[in-house]
Amino acid sequence: MMADIEALITILRANGNIGKNRPVSSGYRPAHLVRPDYLTTGIHQYETDIVEPGETVKGTITFITPEAYPESLWIGKMINLQEGSRLIGYAEVTEIDNELLRRKEI
After folding, report:
1. pLDDT band at 7 (very low <50, low <70, confident <90, very high)
2. Over the stretch 40-90, which tens digit does the pLDDT of each residue have?
3. How far, rounded to the nearest angstrom, does the alpha carbon of residue 58 sit from its chain's CA centroid?
4. Contact yes or no for 85/39 (Cβ under 8 A)
C-alpha cells in the first residue's frame, strides 16, 4: 500500500487534555482532521523505530478512503492528530503522493 503523504509528525507531551504519555511506533493509527468537518484514520510509518512524546520525525501517512475528501491537502498544511476528541499531535504535509488529495490551484 502506497502512502498518501509524507509529513513532519509531532507527538505532543501529555499536558492536561492534550498529548500522550507513551511513545508510538510505526503502524500507529490516530485520527486525522483532514478538513474542519472530516476526521479520518491514517496509518503512520516513521523514519525511527519509536517516537517519544515531544519529538518530531519524518514519516508517511496512508489514509483510509481518501476519495471521501479529495483536494483537501496542500504542502505546509497542518493536520491535527487525535485520539477521539483528544489532540495528541500534528502532521505538517511536506509531500503529497496521492494526487487525488492535492488541492487544485485557483
Report:
1. very high
2. 999 999 999 999 999 999 999 999 999 999 999 999 999 999 999 999 999
3. 11
4. no
Three-state SS letters, the chain = CCCCEEEEEEECECECCECECCCEECCCCCEEEEECCEEEEEEEEECCCEECCCCEEEEEEEECCHHHCCCCECCCCEEEEEECCEEEEEEEEEEECCHHHECCCC
What is the spatial distance between Cα 106 and Cα 96, in angstroms, rounded to a whole number?
A: 18
Which domains, and CATH codes, for the chain? 5-101 (2.40.30.10)
43, 27 in Cβ contact below 8 A?
yes
